[in-house]
Hints:
Rossmann fold, three-stranded parallel β-sheet, 12 helices
Amino acid sequence: MKTVLVTGAxxxxxxELVAKLRGLYGxxxxxxxxxxxxxxxxxxxxxxxxxxxxxDGERFLEIGKKYQVDAVIHLAALLSxxxxxxxxxxxxxxxxxxxxxxxxxxxxxxxxxxxxxxAAFGPSTPKDRTPQDTIxxxxxxxxxxxxxxxxxxxxxxxxFGVDTRGVRFPGLISYVTPPGGGTTDYAVEIYYHAxxxxxxxxxxxxxxxxxxxxxxxxxxxxxxxxxxxxxKLVHRNAFNITAMSFAPEDVAAAIRExxxxxxxxxxxxxxxxxxxxxxxxxxxxxxxEEEWGFRPRYDLDAMTKDMLGKLASRx
Length: 315
């Protein structure tokens, strides 16, 4: 990658990814875009930044041409729980935005990355060690858009030769940017509450395991896959990746190792619980390991130590 355009640059992933990419490739070689403007954000003031509604294909291509980008990292999307509240809008944003990102990549002959999600799986998918290639029948609109996106990226690669790449992200945990309406957001919120209040009420029920990943590993995965030798990529799009699998009580136990007085209670949200129960308990990431060397650095204990330390200094 030489010059990269990032959509959704003010979101949970984008705000950290843009900073990391600018550190690697130079601040003028990473163009952040978002539908809103935050003048105080380092993303907006630390390098090129443009306002972009990703459903506007002409504007998308115009920005790409202006900066002569050779890679598009398309992150703009409505996430699982938020999407269930606005399914028609979620389809429009997630799919129209992806088509415009792919068309920009096709016309500019550049690389294209977009994340899929464990939401692309469903109740009929094998729950434990979910394979790379398996049945995908999600029961959420977010999951439907992710499966559709995986197929569309494969199509653009086969039909037009676009160098499409992607991963299926698990829940992502970060101390930098608040979560944005996902089912796994509790795994971020619990750390904030542990530092501020020493207690947390989980909207996900005890015993509900989901795959998770600490944000530094997620950022490394994006960059590592984008820089991987294309000849070695059998799957190209929607690689399973994961770092850990846990339930709310597992996080609480890890927190109590450092905050002994921490208390966890439950008030289950039926919508997000239903979504969580449709996802895998754990997934098999061997294809990513074998095809481009994916290796996470953080497990639950290492992440908890880092999260609590960073949040304590920030909050």
